[in-house]
Design a protein that fits this description.
The protein is α/β, with parallel strands linked by helices and 272 residues long. It is built from eleven helices and ten strands. Helix 5 runs parallel beside helix 7.
Length: 272
């Protein structure tokens, strides 16, 4: 991942206003909640990896009021905001790198993560979750997939701005990572969303307000984007954006269990 200091600063700076702009995150978080219906018994300890302001953590509290919900984020200000919103004696929030979790091995029954792992190496993230989960524990997550932000990527290249840095994983890669790590019977699927923005400044402002603009576009390049807005807007129009700008977001959802080693567990189910 890129400079963690830049990442943390970006999230810290938008913590107070984040909830007003995180509609995409709310939608994917609600979708993750719907996928927990299959659980046969409530998990004793739930870990929300990359909790941001605690939206998914609060959802877990409402579904499993007797479970300990442990929320983790790299941003101190996001954790402060999450703590304010979480209720009850069974909640914790801490600041930590989410690809090096401050938890003992085999200590959690359920790990959830809503889009936060998108900006980390997916293999490292999945491996760390496997380490922390107990046998029979479940990992449930969402992350941006390969086609995400493709319009912004192409417009930047065509306008002579260096390509945005992040390449997101493909659907089948995530399934293979889950299997190779040791998860059994993983199910992964993908959903496409296309948020619309009236103009380029609105798009950049929204990405800023959810703390990911500097991750998609290095800071020096962000200044270039702002300085050639007219040229960049023309590139969007050539890509078909005649009235405003529409972005593609490919959101991968995954769920997998940590079982006893089964040499026959070699299948992964993909849904589109």
């Amino acid at each position: 991942m890129r400079d963690r200091t830049i990442f943390r600063f970006g999230l810290d700076s938008v913590a107070e206003s984040y909830d007003q702009h995180c509609g995409i995150f709310d939608e994917s978080g609600a979708e993750l909640g719907e996928r927990l219906l299959f659980l046969q018994q409530p998990p004793k300890k739930i870990v929300d990896v990359g909790c941001r302001t605690g939206g998914l953590s609060r959802l877990m509290q409402s579904k499993f009021p007797d479970s300990l919900v442990f929320s983790i984020d790299e941003s101190r200000e996001m954790c402060v905001k999450a703590k304010r919103k979480m209720t009850g004696p069974y909640s914790r929030a801490t600041v930590s790198e989410i690809d090096q979790l401050p938890l003992d091995s085999e200590s959690a029954d359920l790990i959830v993560s809503n889009l936060a792992s998108s900006f980390y190496d997916p293999k490292t993230f999945i491996s760390e979750c496997f380490r922390v989960l107990r046998t029979d524990g479940v990992l449930l997550f969402s992350m941006f997939g390969m086609q995400s932000f493709q319009e912004l990527r192409h417009a930047c290249i065509n306008a002579g701005i260096r390509e945005i840095h992040k390449e997101f994983p493909e659907l089948h890669d995530i399934g293979n990572f889950l299997l190779s790590t040791g998860f059994t019977d993983p199910v992964v699927d993908i959903e496409y969303k296309q948020p619309h923005y009236p103009d380029l400044p609105s798009l950049i402002e929204h990405l800023d307000n959810i703390g990911i603009c500097s991750l998609l576009i290095p800071n020096a390049q962000l200044q270039s984007v702002k300085s050639v807005q007219s040229q960049l807007t023309e590139q969007f129009q050539e890509l078909g954006a005649k009235e405003g700008i529409t972005l593609t977001l490919a959101i991968i959802y995954g769920i997998a269990s940590k079982k006893q080693v089964d040499m026959n567990a070699t299948r992964v189910r993909f849904h589109r």
